[in-house]
Amino acid sequence: MILVTGATGTVGREVVRQLPADVPVRLMVRDLAKAPQAPSATETVNGDFEDPRSLARAVVGIRTAFLVTTDPSGAHDKLFLRAAQTAGVQRVVKLSAASVLDPQADDVITQGQRAAEELLRASGLEWSLLRPRAFMSNALAWAASVRAERTVRALYGRSANACVDPRDVAAVAVRVLTGQGHAGRAYTLTGPEAVTPAGQVDELARLLGVALCLEELSLDAARAGLSRRYPAPVVEALLASAERQRAGAKTAVEDTVRTVTGRPPRSFRQWAEDHLDAFV
Predict the structure, then answer these.
(1) Where are the alpha helices (DSSP H) in the chain?
(2) Exposed e or buried b for every residue in 237-252, given b needs 16+ CB within 10 A?
(3) d(Cα 129, Cα 44) in Å, to the nearest integer?
(4) What does the pLDDT look like over 135-167, one tens digit per residue?
(5) How large is the greatest C-alpha to C-alpha distance in the chain, in angstroms?
(6) Do 11 and 40 meet the contact criterion of CB atoms below 8 Å apart?
(7) Strand partners, 128
(8) Residue 50 burial class via C-beta count within 10 angstroms: exposed 0-12, middle 13-18, buried 19 and up
(9) Which of 119, 151, 165, 230 could form a disulfide with 234 if both were Cys (CB 3.0 to 4.6 A apart)?
(10) How confident is the model at residue 49 (pLDDT cuts 50, 70, 90)?
(11) What is residue 38's predicted lDDT score, i.e. its pLDDT?
(12) How many CB atoms lie within 10 A of CB 212?
């Protein structure tokens, strides 16, 4: 049986949707009411990374786990891996981040991902790592201002990122979770090209058939906006990430999605076409 953590999140929800209906799957969610619709072979359990007893229940009878954590300290990974070792889980496929490969990235989020990867590699469990670039779905943060003001506000609008469709990340995850030959492998996942916020706004404007304005945020304005949603260390990590993007650190394109799944990654235009209703 496969365990999917983070089943209500951006990638986890897509993994649940794409897993074959005949594969036994267990979803671990904190709120059962928010669990995604899933194939008939799926069961759902309540679980919290900060509750060792719920983790122990979630991993009973599990052979393979898809691990998604958001705790920068790595404590959630440590607790999950301890439960997985005790329960006899054989394989863990972890969602990490492409930034772990950047020697200039030393923010708290990237440090946490590196530490979590090391924990998994040292666990004695069979492991695989998925390291995506930023998700194309981050553009959904602009939806409200596009609808109300025909405006997008972004920091460093001319900086490029080889962002990836979360559906493609999930497609790779499904192949790794259900296939063979992925043990000890780390996959960097990108879209087919590096795109800028300005380019994304132009694409949305073409698809919507309206004029959109890109308003460049100052660093102070970006920090103030992020501070309304995140604690200070995470805010500074996100700003440091934006600086690395501005310096060109996130433009490299990998063909991993095609290599693993047999089809090319989706472009931002394809993502936007499929999510255009959010901007109308």
Answers:
(1) 10-18, 52-59, 75-87, 108-121, 143-149, 166-178, 197-208, 219-227, 232-246, 256-261, 268-274
(2) bbebbbbbbeeebbbe
(3) 24
(4) 999 999 999 999 999 999 999 999 999 999 999
(5) 57
(6) no
(7) 93, 185
(8) exposed
(9) 230
(10) very high
(11) 78
(12) 20
CA–CA distances in Å: residue 226 to residues 100, 180, 221, 234, 250: 22, 41, 9, 9, 21
- Cβ-based neighbours of 179, under 8 Å, separated by 6 or more: none
How far is 106 from 116, CA to CA, in rounded Å? 14
> In the beta sheet, which residues pair with residue 94?
67, 129
pLDDT band at 32 (very low <50, low <70, confident <90, very high): confident
- Which tokens sit at 90? 């054989």
Residues in the chain: 280
Element housing 65 (H / E): strand 64-67
Question: What is d(CA 153, CA 164) in angstroms, rounded to the nearest whole number?
Answer: 21
Contacts of 178 (CB under 8 A, 6+ apart): 2, 19, 20, 23
User: What tokens appear for 20 in the block?
Assistant: 């074959």
Q: CA 73, CA 108: separation in Å to the nearest integer? A: 8
Report residue 86 CA to chain centroid gap: 27
> Mapping DSSP to helix (H, G, I), strand (E, B) and coil, where does residue 27 land?
strand
3-state SS class at 47? coil
CA nearest to 55, candidates 32, 84, 75? 84
What is the distance between the alpha carbons of residues 272 and 143, in angstroms, rounded to a whole number?
11
Give the CA dihedral 116, 118, 122, 126, nearest 10 degrees: 70
